[in-house]
Structure formats: structure tokens, C-alpha cells
Design a protein that fits this description.
alpha+beta; Nucleotidyltransferase, domain 5; 4 domains; 5-stranded mixed β-sheet
Length: 653
């Protein structure tokens, strides 16, 4: 049975068993969007489609335009709805002890998690549920196999209802989708009764028929399904299996009763000895043909054998020359400064008798800084400069710091230059110039040689600069979004009698971002607590601060004054977005921003000088000017140069 057929049968079998048991319910939710999927409506349906419970939930974040266009639920509909912590008590009661069926169960579970995160302390210790995804089960039944992902393609609930001719009038409503999902489950169970073979089952463990206590997992349709299965030892004793008679070491177990049959390893060895097979010179594997017919497995093995022969020629030692090998030091006592021992071969010195390294056999430099780069180079650099010599006879070595090995070097003066034809030299120089012109980033002017770095080039811009451009465009879009959503600027003044204790809020100031109008200022009074609690908790527009200082103190004060749980709505920190600036066509990251304990310091004078913005009369006015300056900037669009020629491009007629 093929994999895709087995996956289809397993999914239908699981749905049929669950429908027959009847201990399941259907859950469907509607959210504010995809990222993050916070719940605004929920519904739980019984197996027969009866709605057991439904309701709306007041979200912390506003509903996105895309989600509103799909389910049609406006913000005003959920404005007076209870929070998720109150809805969860009824929802958990309906789901307790049941298998939860959902169409796209992974999304429903993520929505529950995102909605429960702000109320983590209230939901701690809640029971877990067993889930079944009706979308994955229907995908197996529909049979649209994806050749790239090697799995069945997911289909929408509308497609499932159309496939089974199920009426679905209330699409994208929690109650309507829950009823439709329950009907899809019954349709899948009916399809399983028609298509599943008689006696089909999921993988099961079968005990050995010899009575030894071992077990084996069998799939439906396997040979010897359940009965008559033996483990290796019991099968040999019962005459069902046998051991290879030709193996010299541990014999191979063969699952046939023919005691004269050999294993494949012994058959390969016998045919290698008789010349019917031979070893590949490239990979060393067995080629099932004589050498005169097929010498290598494929071209890869042929190239590997060629490289091995070339390395052997390079490492060949000339006549009369002894190859260099690492060995013991030949030490002698010296008195030069703090040095007390010296090796007469590698010329290294030590200050004590504790010598643990081996001798490289050639004069050795202490570090790369002491190596004359115009004379001693590595083997790779020697070949790049078109020189040749015996690789087994290096002329010097360099010690790798904090590593127990050396890097051998070769002398350019004692190497033989490789003669290159003038036409070849011109072609190499032209190819190098073309490559440098194409793979030099036009923003950072860096030349990249890595194939992965070159593949990431877009419009002659490296991937690092592309990331910086995306970050810059994201910050410009953020500033414009703050203005469109009528964000307000907040500054809280706190008093700390004890530096080790959290501060107490004394006063706060609110400033409108778009108009610059002061909405509130002065000391905090008890009658201000409800308005400030609503501002922090469920304010329809974002609240913008510098770095969040004083927000927790203000939240705790408002929570204590009102006696209600106050959660943070959309709170934005301006210091986290002032990280990039634009200089012409290049995006620059501020590497010299003032930091303290890993966070940006509220040094507005530095930011005003960096962005060329004149400071305002107050702290909030300066923040407002910085946001307006960032919103007035233009985003960068990566466009290719007009005359861009890729290297090594073939001409076409």
C-alpha cells in the first residue's frame, strides 16, 4: 500500500471511529485577523449540529480591515462583550472531557493561546483537550496530492461543503461554520464506510508466536499480519528463518526457510572475487558490472577519482627529498630573556619545560602577524597566484593560537610559476572585472565572493543592505500609521523615595500626535483614574511613549484606584524605532546610540542632532517632531541599474 493511500485510509478510519463513539464537539472561532489571531466570536456545536453555546469576546486589539471584510463583525459589536477570561469559563465547560473537532485545528489552538496569554494567571492549570482537524481529514479524502510538499493540499470549508453538497448559508460565522463542520464529519464517516477495506486498522503491536514476549508493529496489509509472526531467534528455532551459511563473523538473518541461501553481502564478495563486480575508483562502492563494461558509478565518481589522482600528483615528493612530517622537538637549553628551551628544527622557544606540542618539522612563525605575506603563503593562495611546488614539502609553518595544530606555508621564491597564455590572462582579468562590477553592492561597496551571498543579490544590492532597506521602510510605514490612527503621546513623571522600590506616578501629560494639542497635563487625581485606565487598557488609538518608563507605575495606580484589572493595549516605544536613517540611497544603522543597561537612553538632544530635527519646547513636542520627520521620509525601492550585465551570460541570437 502506497504512502498517500495509507494516509487517506488512516484519516478516514480515525474520523469513522470518532463519529461512532460520539464523544466529540465542534469548535469554531472568528478572530481579529491572522497575526495575531485573537478571538472575537466563538461557538460550540454538538455532533448533530445543535449549538451548545456561542458568544462574542471583547479583544485587546482592534479588528483588522481584512478580517472585517470576511466575517463582517465591526468593533462596535464587540465593544460591550465580556473579556476572554469570562468567556473561557463557559467554553471550557463545554469542551471538558470531549474530543475537540475544528476545521484547521492548528489555527483554532493558536487563537485560544493568543487570547489566553493576557489572562495567563487566570487560566493556569486548565485541562488539555484532544484535537482532531477536520480540514486535514477532508484533504486526504479530496485527494489533491502536492508533489513538492509530499502531502495532501488543504481545502477550505466552502470546498468541503460543495464536495458533499452540504448547505452552508452562514459562512464565516462561528455558529454556521461549526454546524457545517459537524455535517462534514458525518459525510467523511459515511465515505469511510464505503471506501475502507474490510478489517482495516491502524498500526498495531503483535506479540511473537514463539512466546518470548517480544512484539512488532504491523500495518494493515503487511505479510503475516497478526498471526504466525516470529522474532529472529524464535523464527530460526521454528524453521521459519535461517542464518547465512557463508558469513564468517556474525551471521546475517534471512527471512526464508531455505538454508542454502546466501545474504547479499556474501553474494557481492563472491562476485567481486570472480570479477563479475568491481570496486568503483571514485567512491569505493560496488559496481554491479565488470570493470571493462562500467568503470565508475556515474560522472560524479569519475570526477572524484580525477581529483584524487591530481592530489596524489601534487603531494608527490621529488627524488632525493624527504617529506615533512610532524614529530618530536629537538630541544636545547638557552638563556635569552625569559626563554629557556628552543627547538633546533622549528625554532620555537618555551619559558618552561612543559612542552606539549609536536614539532611541525619546518621553521615556524609564532602568529600570522609575523608571517611576511609577500613571501610565505598557504597552499590555496599559492595556487591562486599561479605557482606550483610539492605540497608534501612545505617551507615553513605558522602556529594557530589556541589550537593544537599548525598551518603549513610555501615560499614563493622557491616555487615555480605556472605559465599562462596572454589570451588566458586577459580572459581571467575580464571575468574578474565583470564579476566585481556585478557583485559589488552599490550601497555598502562590498565585494562578495560567496555563492550564497551572490544568489541573494537584488538590483545589485547585497542581502545585508536589503534587510536594512526593509527595516527603514518598516519604520517609515510605522510612523505614517501612527499619524493615521491618531496616536497620542504619553509622558509619566514618577517619584522614587527608595531607589530599590518601584516609583509612584505623580503627574502625566498627553499630547495629540497629529495636531500637537495637549489633551491632559498636571498632577494625578483619583477622579482621573477611570479615564487613564481606559486609555491604557482599551484605547482605540495607539499610545506612544519614549521607552515605557512609568507605564507600569501608572497602570498599577489606575488599577488600584478603580479596583479593576487593567491590561496594556497597544503601547509603542519611540526609542525602539529610531534605529535607522537615510543618507541618499543608503540606509545607515546608528551604531553609536547612547545605551544604558542594554536599552536606549532618553537623550533626545543626540537624536535631534542625528536626524537634523530642531528640539521642541517640551519632551513630548520633541518626540512629536521626530515622528513627523520619520513619517515625511520616502521609502526606498530597490530598482536595478539601467545597464546591468550579468557575468558569464550567454548571447542568444
Amino acid at each position: 500500500m502506497r504512502r498517500r493511500e495509507r494516509e487517506r485510509y488512516d484519516a478516514l478510519y480515525e474520523v469513522r471511529e470518532l463519529v461512532q463513539q460520539g464523544n466529540w464537539v465542534v469548535l469554531d472561532v472568528e478572530t481579529i485577523g491572522l497575526e495575531p489571531p485573537e478571538i472575537i466570536q466563538w461557538a460550540v456545536a454538538a455532533p448533530d449540529g445543535t449549538i451548545l453555546g456561542q458568544g462574542f469576546v471583547h479583544p485587546i486589539r482592534p479588528i483588522t480591515e481584512g478580517a472585517r471584510a470576511i466575517h463582517g463583525i465591526p468593533d462596535e459589536r464587540v465593544a460591550d462583550a465580556p473579556p476572554f477570561a469570562e468567556a473561557w469559563s463557559e467554553l471550557s465547560r463545554l469542551l471538558a472531557g470531549k474530543t475537540v473537532v475544528a476545521y484547521n485545528a492548528s489555527f483554532e489552538r493558536e487563537a485560544l493561546h493568543v487570547s489566553a496569554v493576557p489572562y495567563f494567571s487566570f487560566l493556569w492549570g486548565q485541562p488539555r483537550f484532544r484535537w482532531l482537524c477536520a480540514m486535514e481529514a477532508f484533504a486526504c479524502a479530496y485527494g489533491d496530492w502536492h508533489p513538492y510538499f509530499h502531502s495532501y493540499t488543504w481545502k477550505t470549508l466552502e470546498t468541503a461543503c460543495h464536495f458533499f453538497t452540504i448547505p452552508h448559508d452562514q459562512a464565516h460565522s462561528a455558529a454556521g461554520d461549526a454546524r457545517a463542520t459537524a455535517q462534514v464529519m458525518h459525510a467523511l464517516a459515511a465515505l469511510a464506510e464505503q471506501e475502507l477495506p474490510a478489517g482495516y486498522h491502524l498500526p498495531r503491536d503483535v506479540a511473537c508466536a514463539g512466546g518470548c514476549g517480544k512484539s512488532e508493529t504491523f500495518l494493515f496489509g503487511d505479510a503475516g499480519d497478526w498471526e504466525g509472526w516470529y522474532c529472529g531467534a524464535c523464527g530460526v528455532l521454528a524453521g521459519m528463518y535461517h542464518l547465512c551459511p557463508q558469513c564468517k563473523g556474525t551471521p546475517t538473518l534471512l527471512f526464508t526457510p531455505d538454508v542454502t541461501e546466501w545474504c547479499r553481502y556474501c553474494l557481492e564478495a563472491d562476485k567481486l572475487e570472480r570479477g563479475e563486480y568491481h570496486r568503483c575508483a571514485g567512491c569505493g562502492g560496488v559496481v554491479e558490472a565488470p570493470e571493462r563494461v562500467q568503470k565508475y558509478h556515474d560522472q560524479t565518481c569519475q570526477r572524484r577519482a580525477y581529483r584524487r589522482r591530481r592530489e596524489q600528483r601534487e603531494e608527490a615528493v621529488p627524488e632525493g627529498v624527504t617529506p615533512v612530517r610532524a614529530g618530536q622537538h629537538q630541544l636545547e637549553t638557552i638563556h635569552e630573556g625569559s626563554a629557556r628551551l628552543c627547538c633546533t628544527i622549528c625554532q620555537q622557544t618555551w619559558t618552561s619545560k612543559d612542552v606539549r606540542s609536536v614539532c611541525p618539522g619546518v621553521p615556524t612563525f609564532a602568529s600570522w602577524f609575523s608571517v611576511p605575506a609577500d613571501r610565505f603563503v598557504t597552499w590555496t593562495e599559492l595556487r591562486r597566484r599561479h605557482y606550483t611546488t610539492s605540497r608534501a614539502v612545505p617551507h615553513a609553518a605558522v602556529r594557530i593560537i589556541k589550537a593544537p595544530y599548525y598551518r603549513y606555508l610555501y615560499d614563493l621564491q622557491r616555487s615555480t610559476p605556472i605559465t599562462i597564455a596572454p589570451e588566458r590572462q586577459q580572459a581571467i582579468a575580464k571575468a574578474k572585472a565583470t564579476s566585481q562590477a556585478h557583485y559589488t553592492c552599490r550601497m555598502c561597496q562590498e565585494y562578495y565572493t560567496s555563492p550564497d551571498e551572490r544568489k541573494a543579490f537584488v538590483a545589485q544590492v547585497c542581502k545585508h543592505c536589503q534587510w536594512e532597506v526593509r527595516e527603514w521602510n518598516r519604520r517609515v510605514a510605522w510612523a505614517r500609521e501612527m499619524i493615521q490612527q491618531e496616536a497620542v503621546l504619553l509622558e509619566v513623571e514618577t517619584y522614587k523615595p527608595d531607589p530599590k522600590q518601584p516609583g509612584q506616578p505623580v503627574s502625566c501629560t498627553l499630547l495629540d500626535l497629529a495636531s500637537g494639542t495637549i489633551l491632559r497635563s498636571g498632577a494625578l487625581l483619583p477622579e482621573d483614574a477611570p479615564a487613564l485606565a481606559a486609555l491604557i487598557d482599551h484605547h482605540p488609538t495607539p499610545v506612544l511613549t519614549w521607552d515605557g518608563e512609568g507605564l507600569w507605575a501608572l497602570r498599577d495606580w489606575a488599577q488600584g484606584a478603580t479596583g479593576k484589572v487593567v491590561l496594556f493595549g497597544r503601547m509603542e516605544h519611540l526609542a525602539e524605532h529610531l534605529t535607522h536613517t537615510r543618507q541618499g540611497e543608503q540606509v545607515v544603522v546608528w551604531e553609536t546610540r547612547p545605551y544604558e543597561n542594554g536599552y536606549p537612553v532618553a537623550d533626545l538632544a543626540w537624536y535631534c542632532a542625528a536626524y537634523g530635527v530642531e528640539a521642541g519646547s517640551t519632551h513630548l513636542e520633541t518626540m512629536r517632531r521626530l515622528v513627523l520627520h520619520l513619517a515625511a521620509q520616502e521609502p526606498l525601492v530597490l530598482t536595478a541599474p539601467e545597464q546591468e550585465v550579468k557575468p558569464h551570460a550567454r548571447r542568444t541570437a
